[in-house]
C-alpha cells in the first residue's frame, strides 16, 4: 500500500514529509496521516463489506434453520388444495344432482307411458272392445315399454350417462418452477 517518496506533500496536513503513497487513492501521506488513512479504510471495509456480508450470512442461516419461506409456500399449496377439493366436491354434487334429475325424468316418462297403456287395457277389458289388431298393437306398446325399461336399467346404459373427463393435466395444474431475475427464488404456479 505504501512506497517511499521524499518530495511530495501530505494530502491531509500539507507537510512536505509525505513518505507514503496509497496505491488505492494515489495520494501521499505523512506517517501519522497514513496510519489514520489505513484506519479509515479498515472502518470503511468493515462497514461496507464485512457488516453486509455478515448480515447476509445471518439471513442465509435463518433460511436454513427456520425455512419460513417454504412454510409460507406450503401454506399456500394447502390453501390451493382445499379450494380445489371444494370445487371438485361441488362439481361432483352438481353431477349427482343432474344424474338424479335425468333418472327421474326417464323413470317418469316410462311410468307415464305405462299408465297410459294400463288405462287403455283396463278400458278395453271392461268394455270387451278389442280385436286381434288391438291385441297386436297393445302387445307392441308393452314390448316398447319393456325395452325402454330394460335399456334404462342396464349397467352399460347407466355408465354412458356419466361423462368422464380426463382432460385435466394434473401434473401442470399446480407446479413449482425456479425463476431467475437478479437472484433465484421459487415461484408457485397455480
Automatic annotation (TrEMBL):
- In its keyword annotation, does this UniProt entry include Coiled coil? yes
Coiled-coil regions, chain positions: 85-155
Which UniProt key words apply to this protein? Coiled coil
What name does UniProt use for this protein? Answer: B box-type domain-containing protein
- Species of origin reads Rotaria sordida
